[in-house]
Design goal:
Elements lengths: L5 H22 L8 H26 L5 H17 L2 H15 L14 H12 L7 E3 L5 E3 L3 H21 L6 H9 L2 H12 L6 H22 L9 H13 L6 E9 L2 H8 L1 H18 L5 E4 L4 E8 L5 H17 L9 E9 L6 H18 L3 E6 L2 E6 L1
Antiparallel strand pairs: 1-2, 3-5, 3-6, 4-5, 7-8
């Protein structure tokens, strides 16, 4: 590595570790830090701290005489090379949790995805007996092995897969989230280029620390404006959106609005528990994202109340979005994920920029239409039958 970069490396690693520790402490103070996405994010932080600590230790002992130095040096390099690709693996799962808004179980058919990780781990351990990924010479100086490119490919593989997933699933990612999530890849890419140009300059883990800081700022700003359960905008952001529309209502011609809630939601909570209720709310959040565009405004503004605002060219276009929403709800019922049928009541109409009414009055109009539709429906109750439950009319 060379003594030239040692003071720089120690300073940047120590500063980066301090920043990551502060982020970890900050995450503990937020309720949202208990969900799976943030737990993965915290694991990424911990792994990066470990890798930077190993880098510091390696730099301090490199070139020093003694068999014990050689042993410790080999140990630090093996550990570092084994766990380093896990940041890419964790980032992949973090992205998928953000997209799907629910835990992703690891199944046997998904184990192929971890195969490159295990190949790299094997080569790292095998380097103790050969020169596959690295070797340490008689002066206790580190050198890359003839298969070090495999480590590079494995590390890059998981970040590339994550990037592809974000592109393929871009319709499931809110527009405001799309660019910040891609920013995670830029600092490590710059660090990798500089590290390849200047041998001995170690920047990978520090640049990942910078990416973590960027994502942390983004996640915390998102927690302020989003509903933690569904990932949609919350009521505070909804009120802000209405005020914005009132101030700049002439920037669009027509605005479609759908306000809906779930039928029998209280009965579902009472009979099946709040965990089932939360599951349905998350599914409805996913359905909304599937039914509308990334540029549309989607929010959960109450317990089971959801709203969607979307720009349209003609009033008749509203029916396209309505039918898509109802079709996706129907698809949920066909999956047999639930022991009952999910149905919704909605108020739907078009807001014209030339209308003398305010957007708040328009929303009150949607609210009235919703309850008019609900009153026209027969009363149902959840009734268990043959070990399952279904909707039965009184």
């Amino acid at each position: 590595m060379g003594n030239y970069w040692l003071p720089y490396l120690l300073q940047t690693n120590i500063y980066s570790i301090i920043i990551l520790v502060i982020i970890l402490i900050s995450l503990r103070q937020y309720k949202e830090s208990l969900n799976l996405g943030n737990n993965i994010f915290k694991t990424i932080i911990i792994v990066d701290i470990i890798l930077m600590a190993l880098d510091i230790f390696s730099c301090l002992i490199e070139g020093r005489p003694g068999a014990w130095v050689t042993g410790f040096y080999y140990a630090t390099q093996v550990i570092s090379l084994v766990i380093a690709p896990s940041i890419g693996v964790l980032w992949f799962y973090f992205i998928n949790v953000l997209i799907q808004k629910q835990p992703i179980p690891i199944q046997k058919k998904h184990l192929w995805f971890l195969l490159p990780f295990f190949i790299n781990a094997f080569l790292a351990v095998y380097s103790l007996f050969g020169n596959s990924l690295f070797y340490i010479d008689e002066d206790n100086v580190y050198h890359r092995g003839h298969l070090f490119f495999v480590y590079i490919l494995v590390a890059a593989f998981y970040f590339i897969i994550s990037f592809v997933v974000m592109i393929v699933k871009r319709k499931s990612i809110r527009k405001s989230n799309f660019i910040p999530l891609h920013l995670f890849l830029i600092p490590p890419l710059i660090g990798a280029v500089l590290q390849s140009l200047y041998y001995g300059l170690l920047l990978t883990w520090q640049t990942i620390a910078l990416s973590i800081l960027l994502v942390f700022v983004f996640v915390q700003s998102e927690n302020v404006v989003t509903d933690y359960l569904t990932g949609l905008y919350n009521k505070r952001e909804f009120e802000k959106y209405l005020s914005t529309i009132n101030k700049s209502r002439y920037r669009f011609r027509k605005l479609g609005g759908i306000f809906f809630d779930l039928d029998n939601f209280k009965q579902i909570n009472d009979q099946f528990g709040h965990l089932m209720g939360d599951f349905i709310l998350r599914e409805i959040g996913n359905i909304l994202r599937q039914s509308f565009r990334r540029t549309d405004f989607l929010a959960r503004i109450g317990g089971d109340e959801f709203v969607a605002f979307f720009e349209i060219s003609h009033k008749e276009d509203i029916r396209v979005f309505q039918n898509r929403l109802l079709a996706n709800v129907s698809e949920l019922n066909k999956t047999n994920k639930l022991p009952f049928i999910v149905s919704i009541s909605m108020g739907i109409d078009c807001f014209d920029a030339k209308s003398p009414f305010s957007i708040h009055e328009f929303f009150a109009h949607l609210d009235k239409l919703l309850y008019e539709q609900k009153e026209q429906k027969p009363i149902f109750h959840l009734h268990p039958a043959d070990g399952e439950s279904s909707l039965k009319q009184k």
